[in-house]
Design brief:
With 381 residues, the protein is an alpha+beta fold. The chain contains ten helices and ten strands. Helix 3 crosses helix 4.
């Protein structure tokens, strides 16, 4: 499929566009002004990234971590001091201790926890597999209510203090945004339609794994919430999204009700948000939750490995649908843990439970991308 928006042309923000739209529609004049300012900044960064997208990229190792034998973690945290002029002042570098600035320390910890997950569990040396330094910029702008990865760095706002707290507060948000970088280097997923929803879901998966591993939680102990703590006490909500129960994360007078579906029967047909990439990610999110809790233990072990290997599968295409991705997860489970084993069964059952029906497939058989059925195509409004 030619002409699809590739994810490397976009910045990836944790705040879903539909949430911003609700604030514009229902918020106070001050709340509307703040979110419009945030959206203007986001659009500027998207334009800048589009300009850089044609620049040549350095070659990377095909097997992450294969050229190194020890960790090469390199973190630098910059304090923007509410400015929008990069890079800001260096506030903490690799090996330095607590600075007394909670946002600086949270960013440092989050970058480290994300690096450690990929290195210690998947043998991957940083985001690009080649030891890419991890940079974060905190205290960005004034009342900036978002966090994003722009292909080179993490940027965190302090929130508006009315709807949103500081965006370094949630370690899974840090893991989510950095996972977009991993997907950029490993997968060809276009940031559009079902492929884009898979892109968002993969970031939620690995962001949640960063959080669960930091807290040493099993799949059963985890809350499976993305962005818990980002909302202030003024908001009727517990997080941005729920992987366990999509559509239940919040229900608020200003923000409205969480619109995420958890089953294909509720698939949202829209052209907004690149074809619903943040909304429909709830479906593969729930599939991963079901696999992890069915298998039990730590989710980063078997379930995480299956999803990571699927991301790296060369048969994953730019326009991969939920169905083609699901079939690849079944094959990955069989390859990693044995055909017909409990892992393959758990994966197949999970996708079936969210309405993605997988026909019987033998490990190693060719997989072809399955296009989006006509009934799931976006519709013009």
């Amino acid at each position: 499929m030619h002409g699809l928006p590739r994810h490397r042309h976009s910045i990836h923000c944790i705040l879903p566009p539909y949430l911003a739209r609700q604030i514009i529609q229902n918020g106070s004049p001050q709340q509307r002004a703040r979110i419009l300012r945030t959206l203007a900044i986001d659009n500027t960064f998207r334009a800048m990234r589009l300009m850089r997208s044609g620049m040549p990229r350095m070659a990377r190792a095909l097997i992450p971590g294969s050229m190194v034998v020890e960790s090469q973690k390199q973190r630098t945290i910059y304090d923007m001091k509410n400015s929008e002029q990069f890079p800001g002042m260096v506030a903490r570098i690799e090996g330095q201790g607590d600075t007394g600035d909670v946002a600086v320390n949270e960013a440092y910890t989050g970058l480290g926890a994300t690096y450690d997950l990929y290195w210690e569990i998947f043998g991957r040396n940083s985001i690009d597999g080649n030891g890419m330094p991890l940079n974060a910029h905190v205290h960005y702008g004034t009342d900036y209510a978002n966090a994003f990865w722009d292909g080179e760095r993490m940027v965190f706002g302090d929130g508006d203090g009315e709807i949103f707290n500081r965006f370094t507060l949630a370690i899974d948000v840090i893991g989510h945004e950095l996972a977009h970088g991993v997907t950029e280097y490993e997968g060809p997923l276009a940031y559009f339609l079902q492929a884009g929803a898979l892109n968002e879901s993969l970031s939620d998966v690995f962001g949640s794994l960063v959080k669960q591993r930091t807290l040493n939680q099993t799949a059963e102990q985890a809350d499976w919430l993305i962005g818990a703590g980002l909302f202030t006490d003024e908001v009727e909500g517990k997080a941005l999204r729920s992987m366990k129960e999509p559509g239940t994360a919040y229900d608020d007078d200003v923000l409205g009700k969480d619109p995420q579906p958890g089953h294909m029967r509720d698939f949202v047909r829209t052209w907004e948000d690149n074809g619903g990439v943040h909304i429909n990610s709830g479906i593969p999110n729930r599939a991963f939750y079901l696999v992890a809790t069915d298998l039990g233990g730590y989710a980063w072990e078997r379930a995480g490995h299956i999803w990571y290997e699927t991301l790296r599968d060369p048969r994953l295409k730019a326009d991969s649908s939920f169905l083609s991705f699901a079939r690849l997860t079944v094959i990955a489970a069989a390859r990693l843990y044995g055909q017909g084993g409990e892992e393959e069964k758990a994966v197949r059952d999970a996708w079936n439970q969210v309405g993605v029906r997988i026909s019987r497939a033998k490990a190693g058989e060719p997989i072809e991308a399955v296009g989006m059925p006509a009934e799931q195509q976006p519709v013009a409004h």
